[in-house]
Every structure is written in C-alpha cells, then in structure tokens.
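Notes to self after the Tuesday call (sharing in case useful).
The group wants a holo model before anyone commits to mutagenesis around the pocket. I volunteered. Ligand is adenosine-5'-diphosphate. Logging inputs and output together so the record is complete.
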Amino acid sequence: MMANFKSNKYLALKVALFYIFMATLWILGSDTVLSWIVTDPDMYMQFQTYKGMFFVIATGFLIFLYLNPKIKDFNKSRINLLETESLLKKRLDYELTTIECMRLLQEPGDIDEIMPRILKKIHHTVSNSRTYIFRNEEDTELGLCMSQVYEEVSEGIEAQIDNPELQHLPYSEGAPTLLEIIVSGQNYSHIVEELEEPEKSILKEQGILAVLIIPIFSGERLWGFIGFDDCVEERRWHEDDVNLLRVVADGIGEAILRRDSERELIESEERFKALHNASFGGIVIHDKGFIVDVNQGFSDITGYSHDELIGMSNYTLIAEDCRETVRNNINSGYEEPYEITMLRKDGTTYPARIQGKIIPYKGQYFRVAEIKDITEQKLSEELLRENEQKQAAMIENISDVIAIADRNGIIRYKSANVEKWFGWKPEELIDTDLFDNIHSEEQVSTKDLFLNILEKKRETFSSKIRYQCKDGNYKWIEFTGRNLLDDPIIQGILFNYHDITEKKEAEDALLESEKKFRTYIENAPYGILIVDENQKFVEVNETICIMTGYRVDELIGMDMFSRVAPQSRDEAVKGYHKLITTGFVSEELLINRRTGTNFWMRVDAVKLSDTRSILFARDITERKNAENAVLESERKFRTYIENAPYGIFIVNEKNDTFEEVNETACILTGFSEEELLKMNVYSRVAPESQYKGIQGYHELKSKGFSSVELKILQKNGNGVWMRIDSVRLSNGRFIMFANDITERKDAEFSLIEAKMLAEENNRMKSEFLANMSHELRTPLTAIIGFSDVLNDEIFGELNYKQKRHVKHINNGGRHLLDLINDVLDLSKVEAGKMELNREVFSISDLLGDIRESISPMALKKNIDLEITNDIESQEISADKMKLKQILLNLLSNAIKFTPDNGKVSVTAIKEDSEIKISVSDTGIGIPEDMHESIFSPFTQVDSSNKREYGGTGLGLALVKQFVEMHNGSIWLESNEGEGSTFVFTIEDLN
Ligand code: ADP
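Result:
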C-alpha cells in the first residue's frame, strides 16, 4: 500500500516537471514560430490571444485528466464510509435488539405478554413485512401441526394472525419440506420464487416474496418456529438477520423450557398439596407412632379434627388386633401397602389400606403413612367378586365356549364348558396356540381372519371351521372372534364358539338334496319351470327347451302366458288364479312352439311360496289325439247304436240289468226306454226259452260272446223270436244285438216238420227195399241159375229161338240182380246199416286188379286205358272193397260213355291225408245242369241214353255214398261232348 502510494507520488512529480518543461517550450517557442509565420502585428496579436487561450485550455484539460480519478476515489471512499457507518449502526441495532430481547425473556412475567414485545422489537430492527411465531401441536391423526400464535406486521401489510388456515395446519399439508429442515435445526431461508411447490404457492398467496424461518427448540423438543416475511422485495436475508433471529429463537426456547419446568414445579407442588388434602385418603406423618402432621383427608376418615389428631398415638386409631402388625411394619420399615382394620372417633371400625414410607420432613426423618378407607372399595370388590362369580357361572352355563387369546393367538382364558363339548380341560388349553386345534384345511383362512381384525378395534370375524376334540375327532363349530384388545377387562381377542356339527350335517344334507333336486330338475323327463310373482319364468330345465324349441336364456324372463295358444289362454289365466288361491292346479293347454306349431301340454303346478311356483309340463299331444279319436269313435258308435236296425241293449255285468237301450230295442219289445232300464236280462224271456237263455248268458259271461235264439215276450204278451248276439265290452258291460227272427223261425219250424216227415218216409222206404231185395233176390238167383243151366244145354239141346230167349232171361235176370244189389247196397247205406271196413292195403295192387278186370271192356272198344299212380306210400287205409267198387263204377261209366278209340285215364295222388283220384274220359260229357243231380239215385242224362247205354242210374248214387263214408267228397268237371272227369277224395287213415 505504501509502495503504491510512493510510486503515485513520483509519477505526479514527473508529470509536473514534464509539464513545466513543455509549457516553457511552448511559451518560448511558440512566439518565435508565430513571428516567423505572421508578420502582421494585428494578426500576430490575435494569434497571441488564441495561443494563450489554447494554453489555458490544454493545461486545464491535463489537470482534469489527472484529478478526475482522484475525485472519484475520494467520493467512493466517502460513500463507503457512510455505508460502513450505517452497517455498524444497524449491527449495533441488531445487537441492542438481541440484548433487549434476551432481557425481556429473562423477565418473570407472562410469556404471552413478552412475546409480542419481542416481536415488535425485532420487527422494528429488521424492518421486514411480517414477523411471527408458530407453535407446534401434536395431532394423532394429522401428524405434527403448526398454529400461528404471535405476529407483528408493517404498515400496509395484511395481518395473518386471524387466518384460520394458519391454525392447526399440518406440516405435511402446509410446508412439507419445512419440517424436515427445521427439525434438524437448520434455517429455512428462501426467495419465494425459487421455492418448490406447494410451498411456493402457499407463500405467494400470502404475498410473501422472501421468507426466513428459524426453529425454536425447547430443550430437545421442536416447540415451533420464528420467522420473517418480506412482502416488498425479494430480500436475501443477511447473516445478521439470521443471527438475530437465531439468538432470539434460542432465547424463546429456553424461556419456554424454563417456564414449563417452573409450571411443572408449581403444578407438582399444587398436586402435592391437593394430594395431601385429597378427600380420598388420609396422610399421617408420625414419629414412632405419635402423629406429627395429618391432612384433611385423615380428619375426614377418622372423625377427629386436625388438632385432636396432632400428638395422638397412631395406635388409638387402629383396631386392637391389627396394632401388632402395624407396630412390626413401622419397626421393620416395611414400605409395601397392607390392609388393616381401623377405628373411628365414634368407635366404629373400617377397613383401610395403609402404606408407610420414611421421608425427610422439616430436616428430620419421619414416617409418613397414607391411609385409605377402603370400605367402599371392599364393598365394590365384594360386588365385583359376586359379579365375577355370576359372570363365570353364566359363562359356564351358556352353551358357547368362551376363550380369550392374546394378539399372538395364545389362549389366555377358556371357559370350563370346553370340556363338556370338546373334552379338553381349560387348563390344558391355556398358553397353547389357538390355531393348534383348528383343522389344517381351515387353519390358514382362520389365521388370516384373525390377523385382519388384529389392528381393527372392536372388529369381529366369524367362520365355520372344524375344531379338534381331545379324542382326536373334529367337530364343526361356528367360530366368532372380536378384537377387544383395547377393552380394559378383556385385553385380548374374545372368542366364542359352539358345536354346529349337527347343523352343518343338516346343511350339507340340504346342499346335497338341493344338488340332487337340481340334477333331478335338469334330467327330469318332463319340463320344469319356476315362475315368480310377476308371472315370469325364473328357472327352466333343458326338457322344456326341447319341448318348446326355446333356449334357456330366451325362456328366462318370458311371460308365462306368452306362449299359450289363444284357445287355451282363458283356461291358463283361470288356472293361474286357482294356483295362487289354492296352491296347486292341473290343466291341459295348447302351447305355441318357437316354430309356430302347437302342442298339447299338461301342466301340473304347485305354489312353492308367495313369490315362486313350480310347473311340471308334459307333452300330451299323442294322448290328446288318441282321446280325440276315442271321442270321435264314441260319437260314431252312439250314432250307429241309435240308428241301428236291430235292438241294442247294454248290460251291466254286475247286476245283469240294462244300462242303455236303443230306439229299435224299444220298438222290438214294446217297452219304453225307462221301463227297459228297470229290467234284467231274464225279465222278458218266454218260459220255453228260459233254459236256453240262462245257458247263453252263462256262455257270454265265460267266453265273452254268445249267440242264442230266444222267444221274448213283448209288453202286450206276444212272443217274438229274437236272435241275440252278445259280446263283452271292456268296462264290465255286455252289448247285445237283438234281431226279430220270428218269420224265419216259423219257416224253419215248418221245414223241420217236413224234414222229419221225409226222413221217416226214407227210412221206411229203405227198410221196404231191403226186405224187397231179399225177397226178389231169392227167385232171381233161381232164374239166373236155371237159365244158365238151360243155356249150357246140360238137360238137352235148345233150338236157336229157345237159346235166344234163355239168353234174354239170363241177361234180364243178371241186370235185375245188379239192380237189386245196387238198391240193396244203397238202402243199406241210407238205413245206416252199411259199415266201412277199413284195412291197410297196397293201392297199386288195387289199381292193378282194376286194370285187369276193366281192360277187356276197354279193349272191346279200342279205348286207351291209362292208370297213373302218384301216391308215394304204397300202403293206404280204406275200405278196399268199396274203393274198388267206386273205381269200377266210374271206369265202367267212362268206357261206356266214350266212343270207340277214345281214352280213359285214372290218376291217383295224395294230398295231406287225402287220396285224390280222378277218372277222365273223352266221352260224350254231361250237361252242366245235371252235374248235381247226376249223383241222385235213378238219375240218368236222358232216356235215349238209357236205351243206348243201359244202366240203372244207381251207380253214381252209391259211389257218392261210399265216398262220403270215407269222409270224402265227389264232384264232376264236364261239358257236353267234351268228355267228363269225376274226381273224388277219401280220407286215408294210414
Ligand atoms: P247207369 O250208368 O247205370 O245208368 P249211373 O248212376 O252209373 O247209372 O249213371 C247215371 C247216368 O249218368 C248215366 O245213365 C249216364 O247218363 C250218366 N253218366 C255216367 N257216367 C257217364 C260218363 N262217363 N259219360 C257220360 N255220361 C255218364
């Protein structure tokens, strides 16, 4: 600094010398130069003036150049000096303020009076916009909060002390970062604009541009803070501001701490006083049993006045039997509480709790005893005990088991009835884990429930779990836990539970049955619908979907009448009404399918509750159709009965009476319908038909049908013949059809009479013929025999004429014999005297015999005879002679009525048990109208034939008889001129 100054000095000197030199040079030189240039004296003089002026200006300029910085420096140091002065003044102010504040804080007065004064002081010193103090308050829910308690503001600045938002404002809300900073003891000094949100907005709203906050600690505790706001300029806080505030803050903190402890002291003194005089207890200070001091409480207890008590012996106040105890306790310095009986002034006793202690009292050591009248306590203890007993009895007698567990699930209490229900003795379970006895499957979930309520006061959980009994079995219990950790008596989780095994089983059974019910519904062979009170379907099964063609989701919510066909709508609505009023209904409705087609549905509905009904639905279309068909057929039947041309009676099988009759029946009998319906089946049967009637009716009853012809008596007594055909109907009834057959019957009677007559005649005729034949045959035998003898000329020769006549006699005799034989045979048959002699023989042998005997005849007319035997079994059973006679008859006829060179063929075949033989020829044939009558005796086609062919007309009649005797039949196929074929059958019994 010195060196610098020196160099500056030399420089000035150098400059001065240089100037002088230059000025001298200028003064001397310039005149000379000027005189050289300017010769004119006037001009010269003028220039001389200019020159002088120039010199002065130049010199002035140079002086200015030199002095200017100096002046500036000077000014500057002058300002600095002023500033330093004001700074010093300010610091002094700050220091003074600090001292003043400290002094104020030392003052014993009320802090609430002192604080505003301090604020005013520092505010004045710092001259900011607002100075304030906030106090902290703990809030369990909101966390640490701040409230503005003191404030000082400059003129024109809005006060915030009444701003409710600055009262009990949580730090977390108002200034989250603030707390973090001040709690560590640091300052919070900021230009508001540079702050982060939300502080920036909060402070800006209050018009604050700069803020400085210093924490106030009272001992270790962050009591609050003191702060400055500047609302005029963005002030960067000076170190002095900070220092001032910090010192003040510390001072305040200390003052508060001091005052707090002072207050605590006062309070504790007051407390002590209050305690001393507390009415609930007495305090005695005594010296070896003699009372030195007592409180009011003790006077109150004993009934003695304070003065009476002073100096009194302790033992006067103690019941005799307790004095020894007290004495021992005093002597031994026993300091624990104990109970004794004490005496009042009036001689009465009272229980008391006493606790003695040695204390220094007024410089000496005395024994102070606290005495408490515990009469009431005893009483209430008694009461409590009683209550506890009651409670215990109650707990033991309720069915629920009561348990208390701590927050770790360790059982602290179990009611005794746990043994009754689960076999455990309570003491076995105390101190065990609550979850040990819970079934492993429910353990985790129950533990979760338990943990869930652990932090929630008075919260309850409930669950159904299995609890292990002592015998190892599990029982279902309903388990309820309640968080009573905060309850002063319970102080744990209170559980109660009871055995619900049976209930659970019932529930399970119910569930099972519900499941079954559901399966049943789903698989039911009929549709099931459940309807709600709004007549909408709420549940349906698959079957109804199949029936209707709707899906389940389409049916749910559908109106129950919406698919009923119009013709069934009324019935459906009425039915529903009936269901609601009577509880059930059955009806048959026509229902619309989804496809638009209809079907008949039988609905059986049952009301389940006020809101639910169940409908069982079956498709009965087929039955309905069948019913309709029955109805239709019944209708037809009835019309038929009514209009039948014969009488119809419907009879009840039970009582044999008529149940129904038709018009014709009335006409037939002459009775009215009413009259007939009172009669039974026998009522009008004529006596001669009674037997038949009874028989017929029995047959009807046993076989189910009968036909009888009975004589019935009409109302007017006339008898009419009726044919009665009866059939059993299905329903225990008979239907009888009655036809008037009187006319036919009459005709029949006359026929029978005629027949009987004819039969008689026939029999007589046969008998006559048999007799006659015998009578005829005897002479004929003689005629034939003797004519044979004559013809053989044994008794002499005959002439030609004689011989011819004898021949005629012989031929006539033979013919007559044949005839008589045939008549005889026929008569025998008709008289029933001809017998069938069956034998087993060979048919082919028979046919061979026949060929042999018939061949000559055929040969004579050159007729081709062909016999074919197609019968496999050779042996047959028949009357050999008669069969031979049949065949000979037919073959001789065939040959007889066939012209020469014709053909006759025989064919024998067997069909089942019948032998069928046909004899054909190529002869003259038989006209169609003769085919029947040809088998009657004496019938021949015509008389001319008779002459040409001869014969008796008995052959075929006999053949027919023989065939029929063999249970066979004979017929003929022939046309005139075209040949004939006779076919017959006989029964072969082989
Ligand atoms: P008969 O031959 O003795 O006259 P039948 O009773 O045997 O008696 O025959 C009755 C009649 O039936 C015959 O007279 C004849 O007119 C006719 N008749 C029988 N067999 C034949 C036949 N094969 N062809 C044509 N007519 C026949």
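Two things stood out.
DSSP finds 28 helices and 33 strands in the chain.
The two ends are 182 Å apart (CA to CA).
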